[in-house]
Amino acid sequence: MLSAEEALRHLLDACRPVTDTDIVATLDATGRVLAADQRSGLDVPPMDNTQMDGYAVRAVDCESGEAVLPLSQRIPAGHVGEPLKPGTVARIFTGAMIPAGADAVVMQEQCSFDQGANCVTVNHMPKAGEWIRRAGEDIRSGSVILSAGTRLRAQELGLAASVGLASLPVVRRLRVAVFFTGDELTMPGEALRPGAIYNSNRFMLRGLLQQLGCEITDLGNVPDSLDATREALRTAGNGHDLILTSGGVSVGEEDHVKPAVEAEGRLNLWQIAIKPGKPLAFGEVGKKGDRKAFFIGLPGNPVSSFVTFLVFVRPFILALQGARQQVPRAYAMRADFNWTKPDRRNEFLRVRINERGGLDLFPNQSSGVLTSTVWGDGLVDNPPGQTINAGDIVNFLPFTDLLY
Ligand code: AMP
Ligand code: MG
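That is the input. Now the predicted structure with adenosine monophosphate docked in place:
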């Protein structure tokens, strides 16, 4: 059996990242992966400006601590004032450009304005530079603001917009074909026959793929037969980067995925030392000469499918997209539970963060209990054979890092 790390290494080594790019409007680029470094063509902020509503002054004019100075102008944000006449103050509003000659801003709460005399009493001795945001203090013109391989979240888009980038080069969306094996599978909305179950993996896996920005071709349920599985693979192989399936990857008589992939391409079936989710199939589908689609077959048990997606498929998809960060980092957290009979395999336990900042364990860790994934805040990555005593520090992978 391969360890989880070895299996992941195999996948990432076999990956050929997609290199086709799209130019997309920055407004529409959420979740895409940046294809090239982006530099700023300007300083941000572009000019010295005030951080407060108040009065722009020359610090030397205010050294008495109660200077009375005539008001010479008014500068709202977006407008350019005149150079400040020595011995006067300028009314100024947050974000407005500092007029030439001024070297500090005094906030309005420290000043009083006499309308009749058109004078301002400055009850403060400002230091030079006070309340001034300097040009370029956030970003220097010419510097790299976002590097290739960055997944674009809200804050990256805000940063790109702050330097005026209206569009961005991104890796084209991955085309992923999915299908679900199992004669027992029924779609919600249909009546459940005796012996049947609803196809929950279809909904879960589509959701996971959507969050990663994939274009999905959903071939639906496929019966447990070699011919039907081969036919689905041929369809899925066409024009897709990746084929993802659920179920049928064990080695029982009703598990047709392994021989089907072997007939339509080539396959590695791995027994991976993880729990849940032991069997994982990886290979390629397609004829000689054509661009082949990668193939990953996930186990059918819903929690196994979910966990193996997060541990293996998600990093593989991120690598295909050329994303820099593929493997999530683990956080050291305190276990507030005991785990006295660990498996010899690397376990991924469903846990939740409690009010004391520790982790509670979902009582039923069975691979069919999807409730644990909804109840939980993440997974504990527990090394093979490791017992856990309450108070121990464990490796925690939060869903907030795994599910975006
Ligand atoms: P398999 O991997 O095909 O041997 O399936 C293992 C278990 O997962 C069986 O109990 C199946 O009924 C169940 N299962 C397989 N596919 C799905 C699915 N798409 N949704 C929910 N359960 C499934
Ligand atoms: Mg099956």
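The first strand starts at residue 21 and ends at 25.
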